[in-house]
Amino acid sequence: MAKAVSGFRCTECGWQAPKWTGRCGECQAWGTVEEIAPSRLVRAGIRAAGYGAGAGGKAGQRGLGALGGGPVSTPAVPIGQVDATAASARPTGLDELDRVLGGGLVPGAVLLLAGEPGVGKSTLLLEAGALVAGSGPVLYVTGEESAAQVRLRADRIGSVSDNLYLAAETDLDAIITHVSTVEPTLLIIDSVQTISVSGVDGVPGGVTQVREVSAALTAVAKERALPTILVGHVTKDGSVAGPRTLEHLVDVVLQFEGDRHSRLRMVRALKNRYGPTDEVGCFDLGEYGLIGLADPSGLFLSRHHEPVPGTCVTVTMEGQRPLLAEVQALVAQSYLDVPRRVTSGLDSSRVGMVLAVLERRAGVKIGKADIFAATVGGVRLTEPSVDLAVALAMASSVSNLAIPPGVIAFGEVGLAGEVRPVAGVPRRVTEAERMGFRRAIVPAGASGPGSGDGIEVVAVDNVAAAVQAALMD
Known about the structure:
By secondary structure, the chain is α/β, with parallel strands linked by helices. The protein folds into three domains: 4-67, no CATH class; 88-294, Rossmann fold; 298-472, Ribosomal Protein S5, domain 2 (2-Layer Sandwich), CATH 3.30.230.10. It is 27% helix and 25% strand. It has a nine-stranded mixed beta sheet with strand order 6-5-7-8-4-9-10-11-12, sandwiched between helices. Strands 13-14-16-15 form a four-stranded mixed beta sheet. Strands 2-1-3 form a three-stranded antiparallel beta sheet.
């Protein structure tokens, strides 16, 4: 017989250890490691039967026979005979959401939508549920609000449908009963951290409860070919709360993000078994709900009556979509022993690198000055192609010379001062021309750029040449 063993698990992240520790070795939280119920090692039992890594030949056959077999749900068939139409995506009616999902919801798929409190997750799913309800019943289970509160929001955003069913439940067994009664074409759980299952240790939202609830809902979704969307909470660092196995269980992980003080909301796919993971959907959050933005470039640009030093427009790629964004920089005299370096919407480490390259390779004298760098409209730019725009905005602020209107720049900056090529140059140049820009400063040697009828393309190979082209020409 295999010996019964016990262990310890962190209630925050699910990290396990053979002995108790005061601090979690994974999430570094204090006082969250608790003892778990003893369990028997399945692997030891298999090895005792003679089937394991060290077993071979007749011993391995004896172990396999000892394990026995069970009934199969469907017989194995050649892959060419599998009907792929059953896994085709069905549009939700929200074009921006369908863009991220790769066309829509796949039958039996389980989605996890995570985001900060108040970002608009419930509003997004309520609108999507009302649109899907036009073709079949939709069950919306709320564990955080009452059905009356959800109805008030639905009235405000115009998402009331006779096929949209509401249920305020926190018990998993009751939810499965609702699913059997309504037989929905889409199941929405808001949120998975509020649902509990009887007979399982832990409080709702704990590691054990979240894992068991997610596994049960996933099994129901696969058995009924029912698309299921789970709303998940996030931790203070922006990651999905709960055990890491939650992200492995589901098929799609969506991140819903946006600045609390901005109307812009963006949906990104962190994991997608049925579509791309490099697409982004943009929404405008207003009083009457979310409105999809097919062309959000104008939100990331400020309007100036006259050119202002310290600003530069760039083109970033969000998936396959080029977006215009403005980078602003301010270099001011510092009265502190340690000058300040403040960034908003930009990677602070890359901004620091660009500053060092700019001073050493391009001769821009920054010295001991306070540096402030930010983006417009609450967008976050992490692509390396933004380096050149940051450098030109800094140089413009230091020299107090404004970059002429109609100029756009993009490219990755290296430590040697070179401007490296980036992907999608023709698409970026075309988008800049469509938005009315007349000059593009791009990396030399990039594939495809050329001066069109409405835009002049200037290729540069180093930062000094880029500063010369932007401020001196």
